[in-house]
Amino acid sequence: MDKNELTQRVDTIVIVMMENRSFDHVLGSMRLSQFGGRMDIDGVQSLTDPNLANPSSNGTLAFPFIAKDGPLPNDLPHERDLVAVQLASSAVTGGPTMTGFVKAYEKASGTTGVVDPPPMGLLTPADLPATGFLAREYAVCDRWFAPLPASTQPNRLMAMSGFSERDNTISGLLPDQDTLFDWLNRHEVPWRVYSAGLSFFALMPKMWPALLTDNFRRLSSLSFDFQHEPASEQPKVIVVEPDYDDSPVHLSGHACDNHPPLPMAFGEAFLRQVYEALTSNPARWQRTVMILTYDEHGGFRDHVPPLRVKCPPPKGASYPEFTSTGVRVPSIIVSPLVSRGSAKHAHLDHTSILALLAERFGQPGEQYSSEVAARSAAGIQSVSAALDSGPPRNDIPQMSAAAISAASRLVTWTDPQNAMSNAFTQAIEGFAKAHGNDALKKFPEIAHWLAP
Fold it and tell me: Are strands 288-294 and 237-241 parallel, antiparallel or unpaired?
């Protein structure tokens, strides 16, 4: 779809980014005959294919297996050094063999020979009622990769900015990089963030004043706003955030970002809430594109090698250059502008969203940034490549209202356990210290964390 069609057909772009799952883990089973036989999707064709097996440290082979959704025993490794282990570059070709996921898990967990190691598990549509529905009714992107072979912070910074000042996740706050909101403000494009919990943007101190404005709202307001807001007040770009598991405070009552060891069910309920809100206004929905993706693979195995895309550190950063994208992640375009049950094979990553913003809201021929333009030159396409030309669909498929059940410990706040939860903790405390009563008025729940 070109710029003229985007301008004529798209008013609202909605971005939903979940946490830490790979394409094969979430959508790969759809290729198996017993789970839909979607031969148009590059998923897992056989559970016994030796080419899809990973060796363990004791020499046994671990094959993909059908897993059930539920709490995992622990998080899986996904920092830059262990992602390199997972990619397992060939000594002959230098290219990734995608055979090191089990060894990386064993290295991180101190185990070996585990029967059905978590990185090899495949979920099925039956366990993912919202994701499975969206994959059946809209367009699966089976060549969408995390931008970097690294963890959450680098990949979310790439999604926010098109570049990242760090290559690992650390306990500190995020650097005050230029973000998509800065770009949208410069182009006078209205935007808004709806969050089920504390926003990830709270980790960036430059965003603290914006958190206090009406640009940041609770997820519970999305449905009403989408139905009743006058056109003159409607945002053109909407970011919808789950309640992040790494946050010590949960505004929605429970995390729902799908970050392991969290089960997927809470995230499935979140995705259903978002979809129902966006489709509650049929006229506005006809001109809406919702992009559902994941920040990175979270240590789960995928069989498709990353793309060869160089990404040097930006000015001021000193980490070694990245030479490829990250691992493939589950991504679905949910919109009347894609055919039912289709698969899109365009090479995409999170910067493809930024490229879409420039195509839709920039001047003719304008690139989002030099960094995004470099990725485009290396073969990363815009999300527009996954949209269909022609009139939008008139149907609005209805998701089942059946209860989505899950077993998990219910918590409203927790002590920080890792670098990301420490970063959230610093963000909450810094935000409250900088903005005092205004911060507590907007987010009274953080008082529980701040109380002595």
Answer: unpaired
CATH superfamily of 3-49+124-386: Alkaline Phosphatase, subunit A (3.40.720.10)
DSSP string for 123-175: --GGG-HHHHHHHHHSEEETTEE-SSSS-HHHHHHHHHHSS-S-SS--SSPPP
Is the model's pTM score more than 0.90? yes
Per DSSP, 149 falls in state S
Q: What type of residue is 34?
A: Q
User: Are the C-beta atoms of residues 280 and 54 closer than 8 Å to each other?
Assistant: no
Vertex 361: Cα angle to 237 and 238 (nearest 5): 5
For residues 105 and 299, the answer to whether their CB atoms sit within 8 Å is yes
Give, for all 452 residues of the chain, the pLDDT tens digit: 888 999 999 999 999 999 999 999 999 999 999 999 999 999 999 999 999 999 999 989 999 999 999 999 889 999 999 999 999 999 888 899 999 999 999 999 998 888 999 999 999 999 999 999 999 999 999 999 999 999 999 999 999 999 999 999 999 999 999 999 999 999 999 999 999 999 999 999 999 999 999 999 999 999 999 999 999 999 999 999 999 999 988 888 889 999 999 999 999 999 999 999 999 999 999 999 999 999 999 999 999 999 999 999 999 999 999 999 999 999 999 999 999 999 999 999 999 999 999 999 999 999 999 999 999 999 999 999 999 998 999 999 999 999 888 776 655 555 657 899 999 999 999 999 999 999 999 999 888 777 65
- Asked if 423 and 170 count as a contact pair (C-beta separation under 8 A), the reply is yes
Contact indicator for 413, 449 with CB cutoff of 8 Å: yes
Kindly report the backbone phi and psi dihedral angles of residue 332, in degrees, each rounded to the nearest multiple of 5, phi listed first: -135, 135
Q: What pairing do the DSSP bridges indicate for beta strands 65-66 and 61-62?
A: unpaired
With contact defined as beta carbons under 8 Å apart, do 366 and 157 qualify? no
